[in-house]
Amino acid sequence: MDIGSTIRAIRKRKNITIVQICEETGLSQGFMSQVETNKTSPSISTLNSIAKALKVPLTYLLMQKDERMAIVRKADRKVTTSGGDKLKVEHLSSAKGITMMLVEFPPNSSTGEAPHAHKGEETHLVIQGKILAEQGEDSAVLEEGDSFSWNACTPHKVTNISDGSSIVLISVHTESDENRERDFL
Fold first, then answer.
1. Superkingdom of this entry's organism (predicted)?
2. Mean per-residue pLDDT, 109-126
């Protein structure tokens, strides 16, 4: 863990000096310097005092870098195509078994000729257009603002039934990250 660097970065970003932290926590400047350079490991109680002085949750200090907020800028989105109808898939974000994608369905396109199944749970929000969602014996026509979800291990299919493109925000949850983005369509 690199808690010291995290503490130093927060302190500097908030324009707080080591002296101010020491005054609030009762810790010595030498000890704080060793904490920030990762030369000593403070107790949870000491970390809690430092977190309070920095006005951040203790849990934030304990998080690994890959557990913190991840940002994907619109210009940096990975864009792929999927299926025979070449659906445009914009990969928005993913974390711990959850992936979000924007899928653009050209007119009369679908996720495939036949329903398909894969691991996971899916939640959908129709952003634009009109689609037909089919799973087993269930089907529904959904329009802008409508949402639905299903267990993806039951064969399913989504078809754009509007004259223009339909755009659907899809969130997929699986127990593992393996094949999640590849298998949803």
1. Bacteria
2. 93
Listed range (18-32, 59-73, 155-169) with the worst mean pLDDT: 59-73
d(CA 95, CA 103): 19
List, by residue range, all CATH 1.10.260.40 domains of the chain. Answer: 3-67
Tokens for 151? 């267990």
Is the domain spanning 74-183 CATH 3.40.50.720? The answer is no
User: Token pair for residue 21?
Assistant: 């932290």
Asked whether 54 and 14 are in contact (CB, 8 A), the reply is: yes
Among 98, 105, 62, residue whose Cα is nearest residue 81: 105
Give the CA distances from residue 166 to residues 11, 99, 106, 109, 159, in Å, rounded to whole numbers and listed in that order: 47, 20, 7, 9, 9
Task: Check whether 176 has a pLDDT greater than 80.
Answer: no
**Spelled out in words, what is the top-level CATH class assigned to the domain 3-67?**
mainly alpha
CB atoms within 10 A of CB 173: 16
69 or 32: whose pLDDT is higher? Answer: 32
In the prediction, which pLDDT does 64 show? 84
Residue 6 to residue 65: CA distance in whole angstroms: 9
Q: What is the pLDDT of residue 179?
A: 47
Contact 48, 17 (CB under 8 A): no
